Amino acid sequence: MSENLVTMVFTDLVSSTAIKLNLPGSDITESNRIYRDTILLPHRGRVEDTIAAYGGRKVETIGDAFFLVFASPVQALQWAIAIQLNHINDPIPTPLGPLQVTIGMHTGSPLPDGGNFIGHEVDYTARVAALASAGQILLSEVTEVLVRLSHSSGFGIYRHSDRNLKGIGSVPIFEVLYNNKQPQPLKDNLKPEELKNIQQAVSIVQTALATQTQTENLTYSLSPDIRKQLETLLAVIIGPIAKILIEQTLEQASTPEDLVERLSVHVPEPSRKQFQEKAKTLLKK
């Protein structure tokens, strides 16, 4: 494998700490042993037994996580899809349900350090992977471009709104849509004030649902297609509550502009302007 340009991949397991806490065992040592033998090692076996066939190799394991490199971004993506499907079709059981994996990747020229790699490109990969939720495969912009230019098939790619990655800057994040998956919200590194805004939005929705407040005279509505697109746009910023917020806001809004303004109240300040611009453009269709 050429080490000049590689596709770096970080994988991790979802809710591993919670899984350990829910495993049987007379003490933490026994619970950890059960976790290792029945969950972690079977997962590691699936990774280590398949990467070579896709032109990859293991750089290191970090707790539950893997750091892998591949000669080709397409092969890296093909492997990522294969390992996710492996867990879907042959799940590893845990007390919290089937074991789930997150994957993020970036293509670049990291600095070799013995058998390892260091530097900005590795940090970039780790930041992308940290945004992945259960079952997601995320790509950096460089990897997405190379995959797109390869004209590979069997999956789709969805562009999320730009994210500010520590030490990297504001960059687009791309999600791979495989096995008929729909785009899912990212696991954002929210600031306390942004989290507070979302919590306030959740509180508003919960109050509205509890009191069953309804507005009888609806003056504005959306076509199913536009409504779905708007839900997706809002969900990548604030998560699954987007659908409920739109339902509630449509009962109050009188114009497209009014709808956007009402929804914007629930969007964290750093993302608000971009959301407003995209939403207004969408509603003009």
How many β-strand stretches?
9
Q: What is the CA–CA distance across the termini?
A: 48 Å
Compute the number of helices: 10
The level-1 CATH class of the largest domain:
Alpha Beta
* Strand ordering within the main sheet: 2-3-1-4-7-9-8
Overall mean pLDDT: 85
Would you give the CATH topology of the largest domain? Alpha-Beta Plaits
Structural class assignment: alpha+beta
Coarse shape: globular
Radius of gyration: 21 Å
Largest sheet: 7 strands, mixed
Q: Give the low-confidence spans.
A: 211-219
β-strand amount: 15-25%
Can you tell me the CATH superfamily of the largest domain? Nucleotide cyclase, GGDEF domain
Number of structural units classed as domains: 2
Percentage of residues assigned to helices? 40-55%
In N-to-C order, the SSE pattern is: EHHEEHEEEHEHEEHHHHH
Question: Can you walk through the features of this model?
Answer:
The chain is α+β, with helices and mostly antiparallel strands and 285 residues long. It folds into two domains: 6-177, Nucleotide cyclase, GGDEF domain (Alpha-Beta Plaits, 2-Layer Sandwich), CATH 3.30.70; 192-283, no CATH class. 47% of the residues lie in helices and 20% in strands. The protein has helices at residues 16-21, 28-48, 73-89, 120-130, 141-149, 192-211, 224-238, 241-250, 256-264, 269-283, and strands at residues 6-13, 56-62, 65-70, 101-108, 111-113, 116-118, 137-139, 156-165, 169-177. The strands form two sheets. The protein has a seven-stranded mixed beta sheet, sandwiched between helices. It has a two-stranded antiparallel sheet with strand order 5-6. A hairpin with a 3-residue loop joins strand 8 (156-165) and strand 9 (169-177). Helix 7 (224-238) crosses helix 8. It is globular and about 60 Å long. It starts with 5 loop residues before the first strand and ends with a helix.
